[in-house]
Amino acid sequence: MDKEQLLSLLQPETQLINEAMAAEFAGIKSSRLAKVIDYGIFSGGKRIRPLLTVLVARLVAFTRMPEGIADEEDLSPPADLYRLAMVFEFLHAASLLHDDVIDHADTRRGKKTANQLWDASTAILAGDYLHTRAMTLAGLVGGDKALATIGEATSAMIDAEFLQAQTVADSNLSEENYFAVLRGKTGALIGAACEVGALFSGANKEQRAAIRTFGDALGLAFQLVDDLLDYLGDPDTTGKATGNDFVEGKMTLPLIYAIENSSADKRKILTALLAGEASQRQSKISEVTAIIDECSGFSYARQGADTLITAALESLHSFKECDTRDTLEGLAHYVLSRNK
Question: C-alpha dihedral over 248, 250, 256, 259, to 10 degrees?
Fold first, then answer.
Protein backbone atom coordinates (compact mmCIF):
# COMPACT_ATOMS: atom_id res chain seq x y z
CA MET A 1 0.00 0.00 0.00
CA ASP A 2 1.17 3.56 -0.64
CA LYS A 3 1.61 6.30 1.96
CA GLU A 4 -1.81 7.87 1.37
CA GLN A 5 -3.61 4.52 1.78
CA LEU A 6 -1.67 3.84 4.97
CA LEU A 7 -2.44 7.24 6.46
CA SER A 8 -6.11 6.81 5.60
CA LEU A 9 -6.21 3.43 7.38
CA LEU A 10 -4.42 4.81 10.43
CA GLN A 11 -6.42 8.04 10.72
CA PRO A 12 -9.33 6.62 12.80
CA GLU A 13 -6.94 5.01 15.30
CA THR A 14 -4.81 8.17 15.43
CA GLN A 15 -7.93 10.20 16.20
CA LEU A 16 -8.89 7.88 19.06
CA ILE A 17 -5.38 8.14 20.50
CA ASN A 18 -5.49 11.95 20.27
CA GLU A 19 -8.91 12.04 21.96
CA ALA A 20 -7.67 9.80 24.77
CA MET A 21 -4.66 12.06 25.33
CA ALA A 22 -6.79 15.22 25.30
CA ALA A 23 -9.08 13.68 27.93
CA GLU A 24 -6.09 12.76 30.08
CA PHE A 25 -4.81 16.34 30.07
CA ALA A 26 -8.18 17.97 30.70
CA GLY A 27 -7.60 17.88 34.46
CA ILE A 28 -4.30 19.79 34.46
CA LYS A 29 -4.70 22.72 36.86
CA SER A 30 -1.72 24.83 35.80
CA SER A 31 -2.43 26.80 32.62
CA ARG A 32 1.32 27.09 31.98
CA LEU A 33 1.83 23.33 32.21
CA ALA A 34 -1.24 22.75 30.03
CA LYS A 35 0.19 25.03 27.32
CA VAL A 36 3.59 23.32 27.34
CA ILE A 37 2.01 19.84 27.22
CA ASP A 38 -0.31 20.89 24.41
CA TYR A 39 2.68 22.26 22.47
CA GLY A 40 4.82 19.18 23.10
CA ILE A 41 2.14 16.62 22.31
CA PHE A 42 -0.20 18.16 19.75
CA SER A 43 2.06 20.33 17.58
CA GLY A 44 3.25 17.39 15.46
CA GLY A 45 4.18 13.72 15.48
CA LYS A 46 2.97 10.66 13.62
CA ARG A 47 1.89 8.64 16.72
CA ILE A 48 3.85 5.64 15.43
CA ARG A 49 4.54 4.21 18.90
CA PRO A 50 0.96 4.22 20.26
CA LEU A 51 -0.33 3.06 16.87
CA LEU A 52 1.97 0.05 17.10
CA THR A 53 0.53 -0.81 20.52
CA VAL A 54 -3.04 -0.68 19.18
CA LEU A 55 -2.29 -2.58 15.96
CA VAL A 56 -0.30 -5.33 17.65
CA ALA A 57 -3.04 -5.78 20.25
CA ARG A 58 -5.62 -6.14 17.46
CA LEU A 59 -3.43 -8.59 15.52
CA VAL A 60 -2.84 -10.83 18.54
CA ALA A 61 -6.51 -10.72 19.57
CA PHE A 62 -7.65 -11.74 16.09
CA THR A 63 -5.00 -14.46 15.79
CA ARG A 64 -6.01 -15.97 19.15
CA MET A 65 -9.70 -15.93 18.27
CA PRO A 66 -11.11 -19.31 17.10
CA GLU A 67 -12.12 -19.42 13.45
CA GLY A 68 -15.68 -18.36 12.72
CA ILE A 69 -16.31 -16.53 15.99
CA ALA A 70 -16.19 -13.03 14.48
CA ASP A 71 -14.76 -11.08 11.60
CA GLU A 72 -11.81 -8.78 12.16
CA GLU A 73 -13.90 -5.64 11.66
CA ASP A 74 -16.18 -6.79 14.48
CA LEU A 75 -13.38 -6.47 17.03
CA SER A 76 -13.93 -3.39 19.18
CA PRO A 77 -10.81 -2.57 21.23
CA PRO A 78 -11.57 -1.48 24.81
CA ALA A 79 -10.96 2.17 25.70
CA ASP A 80 -8.18 1.12 28.05
CA LEU A 81 -6.09 0.01 25.06
CA TYR A 82 -5.87 3.62 23.85
CA ARG A 83 -5.04 4.82 27.37
CA LEU A 84 -2.25 2.27 27.50
CA ALA A 85 -1.05 3.12 24.00
CA MET A 86 -0.71 6.81 24.75
CA VAL A 87 1.88 5.97 27.40
CA PHE A 88 4.40 5.62 24.58
CA GLU A 89 3.60 9.03 23.12
CA PHE A 90 4.00 10.57 26.59
CA LEU A 91 7.41 8.92 27.04
CA HIS A 92 8.53 9.89 23.54
CA ALA A 93 7.46 13.52 24.04
CA ALA A 94 9.11 13.63 27.47
CA SER A 95 12.40 12.42 26.00
CA LEU A 96 12.26 15.12 23.30
CA LEU A 97 11.59 17.86 25.85
CA HIS A 98 14.55 16.73 27.94
CA ASP A 99 16.82 16.19 24.90
CA ASP A 100 16.21 19.73 23.68
CA VAL A 101 17.25 21.13 27.05
CA ILE A 102 20.36 18.93 27.19
CA ASP A 103 21.32 19.86 23.61
CA HIS A 104 20.42 23.56 24.05
CA ALA A 105 18.31 23.11 20.92
CA ASP A 106 16.47 26.10 19.45
CA THR A 107 14.21 24.28 17.00
CA ARG A 108 12.61 20.89 16.45
CA ARG A 109 10.63 19.91 13.35
CA GLY A 110 11.09 23.47 12.13
CA LYS A 111 9.46 24.99 15.23
CA LYS A 112 10.87 26.61 18.35
CA THR A 113 11.55 24.19 21.19
CA ALA A 114 9.67 24.42 24.47
CA ASN A 115 12.83 25.55 26.25
CA GLN A 116 13.06 28.47 23.82
CA LEU A 117 9.38 29.44 24.07
CA TRP A 118 9.35 29.16 27.86
CA ASP A 119 12.57 28.18 29.66
CA ALA A 120 14.63 25.09 30.45
CA SER A 121 13.10 24.54 33.89
CA THR A 122 9.57 24.61 32.46
CA ALA A 123 10.49 22.14 29.70
CA ILE A 124 12.15 19.77 32.19
CA LEU A 125 9.17 19.85 34.54
CA ALA A 126 6.74 19.25 31.66
CA GLY A 127 8.84 16.24 30.60
CA ASP A 128 8.82 14.98 34.19
CA TYR A 129 5.03 15.33 34.30
CA LEU A 130 4.62 13.30 31.10
CA HIS A 131 6.99 10.61 32.36
CA THR A 132 5.14 10.37 35.69
CA ARG A 133 1.74 10.15 34.01
CA ALA A 134 3.06 7.54 31.60
CA MET A 135 4.35 5.24 34.33
CA THR A 136 1.18 5.69 36.41
CA LEU A 137 -1.02 4.74 33.45
CA ALA A 138 1.23 1.82 32.56
CA GLY A 139 0.72 0.33 36.01
CA LEU A 140 -2.99 1.13 36.29
CA VAL A 141 -4.01 -0.04 32.80
CA GLY A 142 -1.31 -2.49 31.78
CA GLY A 143 -0.45 -4.15 35.08
CA ASP A 144 2.86 -5.33 36.47
CA LYS A 145 4.20 -6.96 33.28
CA ALA A 146 3.50 -3.91 31.13
CA LEU A 147 4.98 -1.59 33.76
CA ALA A 148 8.12 -3.73 33.97
CA THR A 149 8.49 -3.81 30.18
CA ILE A 150 8.12 -0.04 29.93
CA GLY A 151 10.44 0.55 32.88
CA GLU A 152 13.15 -1.54 31.24
CA ALA A 153 12.72 0.41 28.00
CA THR A 154 13.05 3.81 29.68
CA SER A 155 16.13 2.64 31.58
CA ALA A 156 17.64 1.48 28.28
CA MET A 157 16.95 4.91 26.74
CA ILE A 158 18.85 6.70 29.49
CA ASP A 159 21.70 4.19 29.44
CA ALA A 160 21.99 4.67 25.67
CA GLU A 161 22.32 8.45 26.07
CA PHE A 162 25.32 7.93 28.33
CA LEU A 163 26.74 5.34 25.93
CA GLN A 164 26.35 7.73 23.00
CA ALA A 165 28.08 10.53 24.91
CA GLN A 166 30.99 8.18 25.59
CA THR A 167 30.99 7.11 21.95
CA VAL A 168 31.33 10.74 20.86
CA ALA A 169 34.13 11.35 23.36
CA ASP A 170 36.02 8.24 22.22
CA SER A 171 35.17 8.51 18.48
CA ASN A 172 34.22 4.84 18.79
CA LEU A 173 33.98 3.22 15.33
CA SER A 174 32.48 -0.08 16.49
CA GLU A 175 29.27 -1.08 14.68
CA GLU A 176 28.42 -3.18 17.73
CA ASN A 177 28.57 -0.08 19.91
CA TYR A 178 26.54 1.88 17.35
CA PHE A 179 23.71 -0.66 17.35
CA ALA A 180 23.80 -0.82 21.15
CA VAL A 181 23.09 2.92 21.20
CA LEU A 182 20.30 2.48 18.63
CA ARG A 183 18.63 -0.29 20.58
CA GLY A 184 18.45 1.94 23.62
CA LYS A 185 17.63 5.30 22.06
CA THR A 186 14.91 4.26 19.62
CA GLY A 187 14.55 0.48 19.47
CA ALA A 188 13.75 0.00 23.16
CA LEU A 189 10.64 2.20 23.21
CA ILE A 190 9.32 0.99 19.84
CA GLY A 191 9.94 -2.61 20.89
CA ALA A 192 8.16 -2.03 24.21
CA ALA A 193 5.19 -0.42 22.42
CA CYS A 194 4.80 -3.58 20.36
CA GLU A 195 5.34 -6.00 23.24
CA VAL A 196 2.90 -4.22 25.57
CA GLY A 197 0.23 -4.41 22.84
CA ALA A 198 0.85 -8.16 22.65
CA LEU A 199 0.66 -8.47 26.46
CA PHE A 200 -2.63 -6.57 26.52
CA SER A 201 -4.23 -9.17 24.23
CA GLY A 202 -2.82 -12.19 26.07
CA ALA A 203 -0.12 -13.24 23.60
CA ASN A 204 1.57 -16.56 24.31
CA LYS A 205 5.33 -16.97 24.66
CA GLU A 206 5.93 -17.61 20.94
CA GLN A 207 3.77 -14.65 19.88
CA ARG A 208 5.54 -12.34 22.29
CA ALA A 209 8.91 -13.46 20.92
CA ALA A 210 7.76 -12.81 17.35
CA ILE A 211 6.43 -9.37 18.25
CA ARG A 212 9.64 -8.58 20.13
CA THR A 213 11.60 -9.41 16.97
CA PHE A 214 9.26 -7.22 14.91
CA GLY A 215 9.57 -4.27 17.29
CA ASP A 216 13.34 -4.54 17.67
CA ALA A 217 13.96 -4.73 13.92
CA LEU A 218 11.49 -1.92 13.19
CA GLY A 219 13.04 0.33 15.83
CA LEU A 220 16.57 -0.19 14.53
CA ALA A 221 15.47 0.43 10.93
CA PHE A 222 13.63 3.58 12.03
CA GLN A 223 16.82 5.02 13.52
CA LEU A 224 18.96 3.96 10.56
CA VAL A 225 16.64 5.91 8.27
CA ASP A 226 16.91 8.86 10.69
CA ASP A 227 20.69 8.70 10.34
CA LEU A 228 20.39 8.73 6.55
CA LEU A 229 17.95 11.65 6.58
CA ASP A 230 20.37 13.62 8.74
CA TYR A 231 22.75 13.77 5.76
CA LEU A 232 20.40 13.35 2.81
CA GLY A 233 17.06 14.78 3.96
CA ASP A 234 15.54 18.11 2.97
CA PRO A 235 15.89 20.47 5.98
CA ASP A 236 12.53 22.08 5.14
CA THR A 237 10.92 18.64 5.47
CA THR A 238 12.91 17.12 8.33
CA GLY A 239 12.99 20.32 10.37
CA LYS A 240 16.71 19.75 11.08
CA ALA A 241 19.87 21.21 9.59
CA THR A 242 21.73 18.88 7.22
CA GLY A 243 24.60 17.02 8.87
CA ASN A 244 23.53 17.88 12.42
CA ASP A 245 24.72 14.49 13.73
CA PHE A 246 28.18 15.02 12.25
CA VAL A 247 28.39 18.55 13.67
CA GLU A 248 27.65 17.06 17.12
CA GLY A 249 30.30 14.38 16.55
CA LYS A 250 27.84 11.48 16.58
CA MET A 251 29.17 8.24 15.11
CA THR A 252 26.32 7.02 12.90
CA LEU A 253 26.55 4.04 10.57
CA PRO A 254 27.15 5.91 7.27
CA LEU A 255 30.10 7.74 8.86
CA ILE A 256 31.49 4.65 10.61
CA TYR A 257 31.44 2.67 7.35
CA ALA A 258 33.01 5.54 5.39
CA ILE A 259 35.89 5.93 7.85
CA GLU A 260 36.56 2.19 7.83
CA ASN A 261 36.43 1.93 4.02
CA SER A 262 37.89 5.19 2.76
CA SER A 263 41.36 5.92 1.43
CA ALA A 264 44.02 7.05 3.88
CA ASP A 265 43.75 10.71 2.88
CA LYS A 266 39.96 10.83 3.17
CA ARG A 267 40.05 8.94 6.48
CA LYS A 268 42.48 11.58 7.72
CA ILE A 269 40.07 14.36 6.70
CA LEU A 270 37.14 12.75 8.53
CA THR A 271 39.05 11.90 11.71
CA ALA A 272 40.63 15.36 11.86
CA LEU A 273 37.22 17.00 11.57
CA LEU A 274 35.82 14.77 14.32
CA ALA A 275 38.71 15.78 16.58
CA GLY A 276 38.22 19.48 15.80
CA GLU A 277 35.64 22.12 16.59
CA ALA A 278 31.93 21.84 15.78
CA SER A 279 32.09 25.04 13.72
CA GLN A 280 34.75 23.47 11.51
CA ARG A 281 32.61 20.37 10.99
CA GLN A 282 29.65 22.60 10.14
CA SER A 283 31.60 24.26 7.34
CA LYS A 284 32.60 20.92 5.80
CA ILE A 285 29.21 19.13 5.67
CA SER A 286 29.05 19.07 1.86
CA GLU A 287 32.56 17.63 1.59
CA VAL A 288 31.87 15.01 4.27
CA THR A 289 28.60 13.99 2.60
CA ALA A 290 30.45 13.52 -0.70
CA ILE A 291 33.12 11.35 0.98
CA ILE A 292 30.52 9.16 2.69
CA ASP A 293 28.65 8.74 -0.59
CA GLU A 294 31.83 7.89 -2.49
CA CYS A 295 32.71 5.24 0.13
CA SER A 296 29.18 3.72 -0.11
CA GLY A 297 28.37 4.64 3.47
CA PHE A 298 24.81 5.65 2.61
CA SER A 299 24.09 2.57 0.51
CA TYR A 300 25.51 0.35 3.27
CA ALA A 301 23.21 1.92 5.86
CA ARG A 302 20.25 1.68 3.48
CA GLN A 303 20.97 -2.00 2.91
CA GLY A 304 21.04 -2.48 6.68
CA ALA A 305 17.63 -0.83 7.04
CA ASP A 306 16.24 -3.00 4.20
CA THR A 307 17.52 -6.16 5.91
CA LEU A 308 15.98 -5.16 9.23
CA ILE A 309 12.57 -4.45 7.67
CA THR A 310 12.69 -7.85 5.93
CA ALA A 311 13.28 -9.47 9.33
CA ALA A 312 10.43 -7.45 10.84
CA LEU A 313 8.01 -8.56 8.10
CA GLU A 314 9.04 -12.20 8.42
CA SER A 315 8.27 -12.15 12.14
CA LEU A 316 4.61 -11.38 11.36
CA HIS A 317 4.15 -14.55 9.29
CA SER A 318 3.09 -16.58 12.34
CA PHE A 319 0.00 -14.38 12.76
CA LYS A 320 -3.25 -14.66 10.79
CA GLU A 321 -3.47 -12.82 7.50
CA CYS A 322 -5.80 -9.88 8.04
CA ASP A 323 -6.17 -6.15 7.44
CA THR A 324 -4.33 -5.32 10.65
CA ARG A 325 -1.33 -7.41 9.61
CA ASP A 326 -1.39 -5.66 6.23
CA THR A 327 -1.39 -2.30 8.01
CA LEU A 328 1.58 -3.29 10.19
CA GLU A 329 3.42 -4.40 7.07
CA GLY A 330 2.55 -1.09 5.41
CA LEU A 331 3.87 0.76 8.46
CA ALA A 332 7.14 -1.16 8.20
CA HIS A 333 7.49 -0.20 4.53
CA TYR A 334 6.69 3.41 5.44
CA VAL A 335 9.63 3.46 7.87
CA LEU A 336 11.92 2.80 4.91
CA SER A 337 10.36 5.37 2.59
CA ARG A 338 9.70 8.26 5.00
CA ASN A 339 11.32 11.61 4.33
CA LYS A 340 11.07 13.11 7.81
Answer: 30
